[in-house]
Amino acid sequence: MTADSVRWGILATGGIAASFTADLVDLPDAEVVAVASRSEDSARAFAERFGIPRAYGTWDALARDTDVDVVYVATPHAAHRAAAGLCLEAGRDVLCEKAFTLNVREAEELVALARQHDRFLMEAMWMYCNPLIRRLTALVADGAIGEVRGVQADFGLAGPFPPAHRLRDPAQGGGALLDLGVYPVSFAQLLLGEPDGITASAVLSDEGVDLQTGAVLSWESGALATLHCSLVGATGTTASVTGSLGRIDIPEGFFHPDRLVLHRAGRDPEEFVPGPADGPRSTLKHEAREVMRALRAGEKESPLVPLAGTLAVMRTLDAVRERIGVRYPGESPGGRPEADLTGDHAPA
């Protein structure tokens, strides 16, 4: 890392890797120096597409490239533990896509590795870095809607996805919850923290993954979050935060909003939109900038996407999976000790 540039490596060559890299190469203080895939041909094609100087046919080669400051792990989430762990052990800082891992046990192992090797680690929860989401949390923190009473959020895709698709494959961590439901859960916990109680129901596929899941999270304060994710129907991807004095609505695309609407009794609705420098709603530049800011500051985690919050979301996802009966090959119930999965789910 130099004063002028942070050097990135890209691990995996799928759609999200391409989107992130396209945004990275447009940042003047970011340099993409290497890419890796399990297929050397795929890595070379990706490198040619984005003008990346080095392409590797193994993850290990990228992890050991000392010219790389930070690796963006963009594999399917079933491989996050292995890929991110390899990079951390080799001394690379890591930005890892969401869902962070299959379960909280794997997430805890990655956090432990980051601390053992004194490396930066962050979940690529781009929603948390979005300027309008940051504005929403500031409004809530400032009391604009009073005490939060309820949160609603949904994320569904129309499909249909064939049985061979990764979203239907238990070995790849398939199902709506980890791919889509991570957003509603993360949104609710950004505002309310880890829940005290969890109920959930789902429709499962023949392969044993969730096609759609509904969950209600509860807090001792009396707040409730009603959350939904689906692989069988395109939802509005809306969200709403209701408080004792008002409400904030995100009319569409809540995880990368282009507007918020604040409603308060006796006042006209107030609309908030991105500023001139914020870029398009789909940009991944905000999370990239946050990683580079933290690295230059010598921080080992981001205050916008803290590791404690990532672990708390993974605990909730584990608990929801336990309640709906989804378990992935080779893991213990929910990825956690059985005793942690009975009754209500208390914060750590």
Give the key terms.
about 350 residues; alpha/beta; 8-stranded mixed β-sheet; 6-stranded parallel β-sheet; 10 helices; about 30% helix; about 20% strand; globular
Mean pLDDT, rounded to whole units? 93
Radius of gyration (CA) equals 20 Å
Helix content: 25-40%
What spatial form do the alpha-carbon principal axes imply? globular
Query: For the largest beta sheet, what order do the strands appear in spatially?
Result: 8-9-10-7-11-12-13-14
**Beta-strand fraction estimate:** 15-25%
H/I helix tally: 10
Judged by helices, strands and strand pairing, the structural class is: alpha/beta
Number of strand elements: 14
* Low-confidence region ranges: 334-348
How many angstroms does the end-to-end distance come to? 36 Å
Main sheet: strands, sense, barrel: 8 strands, mixed
Secondary-structure element string: EHEHEHEHEHEHHEHEEEEEEEHH
Protein model, in words:
The chain is α/β, with parallel strands linked by helices. Helices cover 32% and strands 22% of the residues. The protein has ten helices and 14 strands. It has an eight-stranded mixed β-sheet, with helices on one face. A six-stranded parallel β-sheet has the order 3-2-1-4-5-6, with helices on both faces. Helix 1 links the parallel strand 1 (6-11) and strand 2 (30-36). Helix 4 packs parallel to helix 5 (104-116) and helix 8 packs across helix 10 (307-324). The longest helix is centred in the last third of the chain and has 18 residues, at 307-324. Residues 334-348 have low confidence and may be disordered.
